[in-house]
Automatic annotation (TrEMBL):
Residues 37-177 form the AAA+ ATPase domain. This is MoxR-like ATPase. Gene3D superfamilies: P-loop containing nucleotide triphosphate hydrolases. SUPFAM superfamilies: P-loop containing nucleoside triphosphate hydrolases (SSF52540). SMART domains: AAA.
Length: 370
């Protein structure tokens, strides 16, 4: 089946990017969720964290026409949607040249997007929401499939909130720590070398086919998805505010995430839907401070033994602090046995291997204190 082959290709794209981008798994997965669901996606963090390189590389791997612009308050609208055609203007016709603008691109990256002028910001709202621009008296369709934003800050200005809300998928990038410098250099140099010879794995036509398929599966299985997704969203709302518009799209994000992992709809079950929902909710935080709220949510909603393990780690820490070492050792043995069972569960490992690795490291650290 063609879709099965395309799902495998999506996994190949993800694996490829994970090799060449150091500790960028969240950013890569978020970008692919955005591409597969035709959603807007913003990466927030300091300059020099590979945000632009990620979108450039993804565009190459998808053979996508991409548009890039660093926005400032001096950026002109014509730099985004194209200049007026002077030849036509001399004839008395007001027409614009859309070639090489956002209008004709498959993928767009707007860097430092919140620095744009009010004229550009107003135009971007219709591009992000309706995929059109109002040019004079004409309504012009915008071909851009996914708009990526990049910024070093979350906007606090009231006039920018509507624009920020048009980027429901969000990640927060950061610099590598000093001890990670060696691995960062090794990966970064490999990426610089690989980028020049990078060839496409998929095409935008392939992406559009998968998007159509994802939407079909979502609507055909809407009751099943609503049953398992909505309770998790409702519980998450105690931690993070999510707009109605974004909540309705969560089942599509969930299906996109399952596709990225290479899980076919025929293999989809209640546990995989719930696990995917938990992972997707991380991309719906409002700001960096919300990430701690997400972690609190995850620790109490992890499937299998993982939630119990989080509780045991906190209990063991408290016991060590109170010098109750004998009981702490017993609890640690219990936790290690649960950890072994978790690693034996293929579903848990597929979805939560990062969290499991963190739990394992925490247990090792506690073992060293005993």
């Amino acid at each position: 089946m063609e879709v099965d082959a395309l799902i495998k290709d999506v996994s190949k794209v993800r694996q490829y990017l994970n090799v060449y981008f150091y500790k960028f798994s969240d950013e890569i997965t978020g970008a692919l969720i955005a591409i597969l669901s035709r959603e807007n996606y913003i990466m927030i963090g300091p300059p020099g964290t590979a945000k632009t390189m990620l979108v450039a590389s993804l565009s190459k791997l998808l053979k996508a026409r991409w548009f890039y612009r660093l926005l400032t308050k001096f950026t002109e609208l014509e730099e985004i949607i194209g200049p007026i055609d002077v030849v036509e203007l001399l004839k008395g016709n007001v027409k614009r040249i859309y070639a090489n603008s956002i209008v004709e691109a498959d993928v767009a990256l707007l860097d430092e997007i919140f620095n744009a002028s009010s004229a550009i910001l107003n135009t971007l709202l219709t591009i992000l929401n309706e995929r059109v621009i109002f040019d004079g008296g004409a309504v012009v369709p915008v071909k851009t499939w996914t708009v990526f934003g990049a910024s070093n800050r979350v906007p606090d200005e009231e006039e920018l909130q509507a624009l920020y809300d048009r980027f429901p998928l969000r990640t927060f990038t950061k610099y590598a720590s000093p001890e990670e410098t060696e691995d960062l250099l090794r990966t970064g140099l490999a990426l610089r070398q690989e980028y020049e010879r990078m060839i496409h794995i998929m095409t935008m036509d392939d992406i559009k086919k998968i998007n159509e398929y994802i939407n079909k599966i979502v609507y055909e299985n809407s009751e099943l998805l609503v049953k398992h997704v909505s309770p998790l969203i409702a519980a998450y709302l105690d931690h993070v505010v999510i707009s109605n518009r974004t909540r309705v799209k969560v089942p599509i994000y969930v299906m996109a995430y399952l596709t990225i992992l290479g899980i076919k709809p025929s293999d989809m079950d209640a546990s995989s839907i719930r696990a995917a929902t938990i992972k997707v909710l991380k991309y719906l935080v409002h700001d960096k401070e919300d990430l701690s709220e997400y972690e609190a949510f995850v620790s109490s909603h992890m499937p299998g033994n993982l939630s119990t393990l989080y509780d045991l780690i906190n209990e063991i820490k408290a016991l060590i602090a109170n010098n109750a070492l004998t009981i702490a050792r017993e609890k640690l043995r219990e936790a290690e046995e649960l950890m072994d069972k978790a690693y034996a569960d293929p579903t848990l490992y597929k979805f939560f291997q990062t969290e499991m690795a963190e739990i394992k490291d925490a247990l090792s650290m506690l073992r060293s204190q005993l």
